[in-house]
Amino acid sequence: MVTLTPLEIGLGLVVLVLLAGIAVLIMRNRQRANLRSKFGTEYERTVEEVGSSRKAEAELQEREKRVASFQLRRLSPQQVDMFTDGWMKVQNQFVDDPQGAVSRADVLLTEVMEARGYPIVDFDRRSADLSVDHPEVVQNYRSAHDIAIRHARGEADTEDLRQAMIHYRSLFEELIHEPGEPNGASHMPRPSRFGDTDYGRRDLH
Known about the structure:
The chain is mainly alpha-helical.
């Protein structure tokens, strides 16, 4: 039977603690890399908002857990057609009533989100929830919302409202086409049903 001296036991414990620390560090770095890859610019935005990487990562992981509990569902073909028709009406409305069209676009997006299974809560919570599966376009949603608020205060012009419509459309297209998977296929590129990205200047003139 081998008898270890107190020094050997102490050294063994130190090694175990170091190995455990290295394992935790590797795990945290892997989690950080995964979050950076998934959320992209939303990761940096959250770091800036909360003040540290660790707090931001906790916030993003909390969002993931919350959204995983939702019963998200794909839209039926009938719903896609209905919402698409609604969007075309909003787009046409912009010609004579830009402010009303932007307001209606925001409402229409909320209706699409509700149909998909997202809880309809305050704007900050909605945008945070959307960032989990739509990190590339959620900032467009925030920008459009900010423009609508600025216009209500008399601080935005028609060109700003045109940009808001383009921002809203980017999220609208993702939500009505997104097939329902939490990752992967839902982010594949798809053709636009509303023309190219310059439609705002052509159709909303």
